[in-house]
Amino acid sequence: MAPGRMLEHLLRSTGEARVIGELITGRDGNNYSPGGESWKCAFAPDESRFAWSCGFRKVVILPWNRYKNCLQSEHNADQEGYEVFAEKVSIDAGFPVTSLAFGTGTPEQDLVPVKREYWTRFDFSKDLILATGHSNGRIRIWDPYTGKLLLELTDHMKPVTDLAFAPDGSLRLVSASKDSTVKVWDMSDDGNMFKTLREHPGPVRSLCWSPDGKFLCSTGDKQKVLLWNMGTYSLIRRLSGHYNNVLSCAFSPDGAMLATASCDTRVIIWDTSSGEQLRILNHMNPTPGVIYMSGENNSVVRGVTFSPNGCHVASVCSDGFLRFWNLMSEEDEPESMGSALAGDSMLNCSFSPLGGAVSVGHTSGSVVFFLAPPMVPSLLHLSRMSVRRSLGDVTARDDLLLPQTLKPYLQYKQW
């Protein structure tokens, strides 16, 4: 069966993901000028705002209604018929934006929607901040309430490819770059860059923190997936299994698993503690040979994200589809799929912090919001997540007596 027909058959055999919102630039994603891409979008940790990198130096921050699971508008339109949003903040970032991330000095597990007193001086330890990475290697820090530039960080020699704030409230910012380095910045110390991690032999493509802020994953060219101890800032593990560049990574909400997306047409789910491969999510069926995977192909997996309940993984692929994978199912086939905008390509995806929606950035700079598949986790799964989040991999501890039959479940070898 031809690849196009296989995709049509797969789309018919799975559920279709529902679109619940769009931010449209009106540009043609297939005939565009470089610089107009939406390389990264982000929800604020408290889900009060959504930052949209819409291309050509512009970032728009919009209010998100975490209860209604949608963008919050003023229920009217401008002269061109576009919806007018409440508290909209537009930023001219000065340079092409290649990444962005929200951060806060409050640990994410303690967050409630931020209510800022506008007359107070900006307080890094209490307020949300927004970081943008740029094609010239600079990083800029913004007040997302006003769009004011607060800091500029300069140390990377090539474009910044990803940014991530520590979720523990420490205000550590990590940045990835095509200069083959990962840098660690301290926002509580006026943005001081205090550590450079140098184990990548080529461009670094993505970063993600473990939920407890103890570990960092960095991925990049030459099949690299590296796991770092962020207490000692030392490399603790190399994960081997991909056949091509690795473009995206995401930890599960309890930190027990790591998902990585690659140009080899696959997403691999890893055991964080052991580095063992738990599952492989193939974006081509039948699975292609290694020679095809390791070269240029039409099924590059560009982004991956975990749902907050740990039950689903979402991925976007260069074949034009968003896939939702139900990890509770024994079938390694997508549960539902969504399509890219006509004449456009998907570049990134992010679950909202409460898990109700997934944002997908496109080459045209546009963003589409999809409704995430509903799932009520079992009490057993919630207990497993609670144990792994608070105690780590208890199966490796000698001071705990566990039934042998329970260990595979706690290690996510059984679902």
UniProtKB/TrEMBL annotation:
WD repeats lie at residues 153-195, 197-238, 239-280, 294-335. One of its GO terms (biological process) is intracellular signal transduction. Residues 376-415 form the SOCS box domain. It holds the Pfam family WD40. InterPro entries: SOCS_box, SOCS_box-like_dom_sf, WD40/YVTN_repeat-like_dom_sf, WD40_PAC1, WD40_repeat_CS, WD40_repeat_dom_sf, WD40_rpt, WSB_SOCS-box_domain. SUPFAM superfamilies: SOCS box-like, WD40 repeat-like. Signal peptide: none annotated. Keywords: Repeat, Ubl conjugation pathway, WD repeat. CDD domains: SOCS, WD40. It comes from the Eukaryota. This is SOCS box domain-containing protein. It comes from Cherax quadricarinatus (Australian red claw crayfish).
